């Protein structure tokens, strides 16, 4: 090749190198034009697409002097939040958040919008979107803004001054060529101590979203720069470099003598999701370490600007690989934590199931045992009930029949109502010669214990009156008292038994027209001329000696004589009727009502009186439980 030809080739290569370098610088200057792609995905022409998430929280911002600030309580994402976009007061776009709290807004560029988020039970959230400054070259591609985080407070403040005020403005910055955010400033105090504060959490979250989108811009620009540099450097490596000598500056070095920049730099592509394994991570670390050492060696061997650009691109690639590896490690750690959490939850679930089955087993066993015990208890209860019912039959057999009493006392009635199956109250009557003895007795206790006492009392009265023919009322009570002490062994010094009886006893002498009365605690009522006379008893019960009076076991009772007048009525009773609770206020029937009832029934015969006494108690007691045995005896002369 002649000198001119060589010179022509050298000039042509130089022009190509200058052209390529100019093209590379042009690409660098056009990097901001790639801004729309920084938002993760391309948008539609002439629009801005805003994607985000709406979450809920609770925070009471009010605070009194020297009071700690109230904590913020997170409540998770919010579904079906109503989003209304307005332009100049007119609604142009509406949307609802989905089940995950996500939303998407698609708005035309060149305008300013007011975005209002509303949901029942939460404070309204408002912000502005200003895309009036978007240049035509960006508007032709469109903008996409992702990762917007909005929050709504469930605390409804009484102060509505800031309810309809936007918390800030999301706008396009023509100088930065990207979306930016300007928070609203709120004056929280007035007067001398007025100060400006950033309004709420929403502004901070929107700032964070802007920073995330800005980082995406920088990463995309780096990727574009690295790709362009590598292509440029690889293309440049295939061409000879013109050089000059001292003898002739226009003479170019032959292609076979051009110095080539060689490197063993090797770095694989990015990490895929399927490669997240410990073994691959170790291999990737070794690969990056080897690439770092080779890059340091290449830096030492670089001579030209193209070499430096190529090394810079590889350095960016290496840094990206390091960041990617760090992210992969974090992802692996997160996955391991999730697996550990899931494993712990599985163990907890298994343990809970074991506890539940164990509990169910014991519950089943307990239910089975309870059912078995219930059957046994039912059988025992039936036996006891049968025994008590038989005891009732025995007790009723020793009580005088009402028909027998009416043979002795034609104008009479007996109201007898045990609390349980058997009773501690009993009545006793007998005819000795021309005299009739009748008694109303209230034994200590009720039910089975009271029934046993009634059997003892009935036996002793038969012995004293029917066998020994004692008919003096005071003597009968005295002998009955001694008999109870003896029967219950109450004279023994080691026994402190208070069981005994309260009673009223009348000896009726029709020939003498006289009634002999002796009472132990219980009085009798005489009704004559629509008036009641109370014949009081001795305040000494039958039986029940106290230790202090054990040496003196003989007790004297008094006999009172009452003349018999025609039409006169006599009533004997125990305290069960008057002590029964019931009525409007669940109160005792009491003595006053009992006396009034006796006066009210005087116009009626004795059978009707018994019906009234019985019905009056049923109405009074109602659904309340009977608390004691009841006995009322009525006589008319």
Summarize the structure.
The chain is built from ten helices and 25 strands. The protein has helices at 3-29, 136-139, 201-237, 278-301, 305-398, 402-408, 447-467, 473-487, 590-600, 606-621, and strands at 47-58, 73-77, 82-87, 90-96, 102-108, 112-118, 125-130, 143-153, 168-173, 178-183, 186-187, 196-197, 412-417, 425-432, 435-443, 500-509, 514-520, 524-528, 531-535, 542-543, 560-563, 569-573, 581-582, 587-588, 630-636. It has a six-stranded mixed β-sheet.
- Lateral arrangement of strands in the main beta sheet: 4-3-6-7-9-10
Tally of individual domains: 3
Please identify, by name, the CATH architecture of the largest domain: Sandwich
| Annotated CATH homologous superfamily of the largest domain | Immunoglobulins
In angstroms, what is the radius of gyration? 56 Å
The CATH top-level class label of the largest domain: Mainly Beta
Q: Kindly state the percentage of residues in helix.
A: 40-55%
- Return residue spans where pLDDT drops below 50 for at least 5 consecutive residues: 1-12, 16-42, 191-199, 238-259
> What is the residue-averaged pLDDT?
81
The number of E-state strands comes to 25
Give the N-to-C terminal Cα separation. 169 Å
General shape: elongated
């Amino acid at each position: 090749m002649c000198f001119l030809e060589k010179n022509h080739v050298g000039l042509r290569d130089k022009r190509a190198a200058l052209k390529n370098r100019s093209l590379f610088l042009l690409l660098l200057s056009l990097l901001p034009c790639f801004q729309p792609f920084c938002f993760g995905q391309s948008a539609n022409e002439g629009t801005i697409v805003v994607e985000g998430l709406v979450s809920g929280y609770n925070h009471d911002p009010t605070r009194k002097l020297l009071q700690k600030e109230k904590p913020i309580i997170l409540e998770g994402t919010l579904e079906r939040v109503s989003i209304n976009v307005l332009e100049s007061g007119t609604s142009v776009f509406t949307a609802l958040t989905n089940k995950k709290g996500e939303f998407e807004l698609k708005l035309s560029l060149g305008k300013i919008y007011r975005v209002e988020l509303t949901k029942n039970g939460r404070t309204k959230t408002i912000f502005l979107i200003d895309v009036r400054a978007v240049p035509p070259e960006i508007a032709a591609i469109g903008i996409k803004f992702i990762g917007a985080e909005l929050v709504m407070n469930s605390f409804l403040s009484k102060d509505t001054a800031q309810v309809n005020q936007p918390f800030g403005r999301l706008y396009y910055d023509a100088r930065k060529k990207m979306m930016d955010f300007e928070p609203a400033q709120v004056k929280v105090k007035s007067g001398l101590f007025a100060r400006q504060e950033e309004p709420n959490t929403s502004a901070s979250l929107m700032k964070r979203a802007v920073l995330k989108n800005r980082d995406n811009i920088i990463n995309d620009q780096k990727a574009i720069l690295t790709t362009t540099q590598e292509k440029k450097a690889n293309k440049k490596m295939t061409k000879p470099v013109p050089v000059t000598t001292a003898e002739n500056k226009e003479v170019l070095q032959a292609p076979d003598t051009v110095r080539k920049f060689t490197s063993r730099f090797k770095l694989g592509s990015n990490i895929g999701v399927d490669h997240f394994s410990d073994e691959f991570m170790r291999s990737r670390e070794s690969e990056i370490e080897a690439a770092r050492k080779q890059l340091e060696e290449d830096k030492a061997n670089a001579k030209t600007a193209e070499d430096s650009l190529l090394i810079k691109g590889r350095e960016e690639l290496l840094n990206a690989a390091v960041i990617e590896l760090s992210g992969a490690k974090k992802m692996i750690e997160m996955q391991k934590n999730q697996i550990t959490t899931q494993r712990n939850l599985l163990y907890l679930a298994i343990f809970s199931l074991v506890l539940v089955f164990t509990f169910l087993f014991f519950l089943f066993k307990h239910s089975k045992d309870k059912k078995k015990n219930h059957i046994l208890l039912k059988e025992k209860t039936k036996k006891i009930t049968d025994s008590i019912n038989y005891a009732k039959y025995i007790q009723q057999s020793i009580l005088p029949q009402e028909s027998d009493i009416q043979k002795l006392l034609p104008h009479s009635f007996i109201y007898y109502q045990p609390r349980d199956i058997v009773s501690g109250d009993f009545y006793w009557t007998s005819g000795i010669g021309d005299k009739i003895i009748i008694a109303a007795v209230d034994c200590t206790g009720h039910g089975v214990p009271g029934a046993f006492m009634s059997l003892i009392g009935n036996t002793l009265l038969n012995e004293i009156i029917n066998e020994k023919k004692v008919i003096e009322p005071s003597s009968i009570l005295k002998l009955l008292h001694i008999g109870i002490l003896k029967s219950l062994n109450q004279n023994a010094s080691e026994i402190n038994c208070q069981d005994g009886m309260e009673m009223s006893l009348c000896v009726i002498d029709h020939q003498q027209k006289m009634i002999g009365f002796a009472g132990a605690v219980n009085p009798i009522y005489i009704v004559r001329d629509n008036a009641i006379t109370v014949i009081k008893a001795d305040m000494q019960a039958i039986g029940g000696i106290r230790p202090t009076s054990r040496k003196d076991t003989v007790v004297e009772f008094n006999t009172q004589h009452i003349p018999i007048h025609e039409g006169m009525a006599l009533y004997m009773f125990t305290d069960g009727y008057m002590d029964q609770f019931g009525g409007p206020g669940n109160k005792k029937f009491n003595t006053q009502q009992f006396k009034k009832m006796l006066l009210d029934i005087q116009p009626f015969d004795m059978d009707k009186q018994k019906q009234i006494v019985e019905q009056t108690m049923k109405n009074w007691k109602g659904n309340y439980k009977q608390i004691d045995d009841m006995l009322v005896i009525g006589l008319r002369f």
